[in-house]
């Protein structure tokens, strides 16, 4: 059975130190991929962009700097956990988003009620979905 948790959060897209604008970001968690959360950014004038990364990274990043590589999450200030920065990077390009912590924690709490942290592997069909996803990725790479 496929179940999900969704929320919409307003985040600030930090273009530079002088320029930022607020955008809606859809948060999504699905039991068919219990280790990941998806954030879909609705940037003005562009098609929505979705990033998937570990739910645990988002949970940990609310309280301390976390992540390596393409996705990093950290509190804006080490002593003030009211806002979070989410940095997404592809090659030399990066995007920085600022969010209030409260709606992220509320969303994560709802995901934990659906699938408690540490219990993701208990979902019986997860391995089958993982195998299907890997087969699809390999087929796409072979075709490209």
What does it look like?
- The protein has a 7-stranded antiparallel sheet with strand order 4-3-2-1-7-6-5, sandwiched between helices.
- With 144 residues, it is α+β, with helices and mostly antiparallel strands.
- The protein is built from 3 helices and 7 strands; from the N terminus they run E-E-E-E-H-E-E-E-H-H.
Provide the descriptors you would attach to this structure in a database record.
alpha+beta; 7 strands; 144 residues; 27% helix; 7-stranded antiparallel β-sheet; 3 helices
Mean pLDDT: 88
Shape: globular
H and E order? EEEEHEEEHH
What is the distance, rounded to the nearest whole angstrom, between the alpha carbons of the first and last residues? Answer: 33 Å
* Gyration radius from CA atoms, angstroms: 16 Å
Topology:
Elements: E1 4-14, E2 20-30, E3 36-41, E4 49-54, H1 55-61, E5 71-77, E6 80-90, E7 93-100, H2 101-114, H3 126-143
Antiparallel strand pairs: 1-2, 1-7, 2-3, 3-4, 5-6, 6-7
Quick recap:
The protein contains three helices and seven strands, in the order ββββαβββαα. The chain has helices at 55-61, 101-114, 126-143; strands at 4-14, 20-30, 36-41, 49-54, 71-77, 80-90, 93-100. It has a seven-stranded antiparallel beta sheet, sandwiched between helices.
């Amino acid at each position: 059975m496929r179940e999900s948790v969704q929320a919409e959060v307003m985040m600030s897209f930090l273009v530079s130190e002088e320029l930022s604008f607020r955008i809606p970001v859809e948060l999504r968690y699905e039991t068919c991929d219990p280790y990941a959360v998806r954030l879909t950014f609705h940037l003005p004038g562009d098609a929505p962009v979705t990033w998937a990364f570990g739910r645990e990274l988002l949970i940990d990043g609310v309280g301390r700097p976390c992540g390596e590589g393409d996705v990093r999450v950290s509190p804006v200030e080490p002593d003030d956990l009211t806002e979070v920065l989410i940095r997404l990077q592809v090659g030399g390009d990066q995007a920085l988003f600022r969010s209030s912590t409260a709606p992220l924690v509320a969303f994560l709490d709802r995901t934990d009620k659906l699938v408690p942290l540490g219990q993701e592997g208990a979902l019986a069909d997860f391995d089958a979905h993982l195998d299907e996803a890997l087969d699809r990725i390999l087929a796409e790479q072979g075709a490209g």
